[in-house]
Design goal:
The protein has about 220 residues and is α/β, with parallel strands linked by helices. The chain folds into 2 domains: about 120 residues, 3-Layer(aba) Sandwich (Rossmann fold); about 90 residues, Arc Repressor Mutant, subunit A (Orthogonal Bundle), CATH 1.10.10. A 5-stranded parallel β-sheet has the order 2-1-3-4-5. The radius of gyration is 18 Å and the shape is elongated.
Length: about 220
């Protein structure tokens, strides 16, 4: 049975999420103010963060994203319709569902999230189109040729490859790679993308695509 961490301020006895997952998953419940060190002792298959009244959306997600739990564990957000627009500022999430929801829909989304995430990469490794990233070693390879990257270059490339096909604006990338409090300006993203393209070479570098009016993405297919 898969283990799900449910982070919610809602009383478990009144939580529709707990009711929907009961018997299907091993649900570990924690409050939003749990200490980050607790995550490191958990073997998780997925995380659900319920955004309730009085819980700031962006702050809650970014606080969670700075822990080791989200680094390798997919995150599903449960949110009301009035706050959905804020989610575009949080590239850390894998999926979201709007309250109120049908139990079958929540179970289906959670199942697809876990299955899709497991199938997207080998543990400790990301691979795409001849590019291989060894996450623990912070080492990149292009067609088995080692490519030396700085920590920020590697983190930026890792983020884009992890969400390949999805476009991010510069502010989203700064938040995900440099941190919410970074004050150096979003143009640092352009500099790092340019350096990555040079280091990765013409073929792999071409996957780092500029999306005009938005920002950047790592394409999931070669150009025909």
């Amino acid at each position: 049975m898969d283990t799900i961490l449910l982070i919610s301020a809602v009383d478990p006895s009144r939580s529709p999420i707990v009711a929907a997952l009961e018997g299907e998953y091993d649900v570990v419940r924690r409050s939003p103010d749990m200490h980050p060190i607790e995550y490191r002792t958990m073997a998780l298959d997925g995380i659900i963060l319920e955004i309730s009244d009085g819980l700031p959306v962006i702050a809650a997600i970014r606080r969670l994203s700075r822990t080791s739990a989200v680094d390798g564990t997919p995150l599903l957000i449960v949110v009301d319709s009035a706050r959905v627009a804020l989610l575009h500022q949080t590239p850390e999430i894998y999926d979201f569902i709007i309250k109120p929801f049908a139990n079958d829909e929540l179970r289906l989304r959670l199942s697809r999230m876990i299955t899709g995430f497991r199938g997207s990469a080998k543990p400790g490794c990301l691979e795409a189109n001849g590019l291989r990233l060894l996450l623990d070693e912070h080492q990149a390879y292009v067609d088995e040729r080692p490519v030396n990257l700085t920590l920020r270059e590697f983190a930026l490339l890792r983020h884009l490859v992890s969400h390949r096909g999805r476009a991010f604006d510069r502010d989203q990338l700064v938040s995900a790679v440099w941190g919410f409090d970074y004050e150096g300006g979003s143009r640092t993203v352009d500099i790092h993308i340019r350096r990555l393209r040079i280091k990765l070479g013409d073929r792999i570098g071409a996957f780092l695509q500029t999306v005009h009016g938005v920002g950047y993405r790592f394409r999931d297919k070669e150009l025909g």
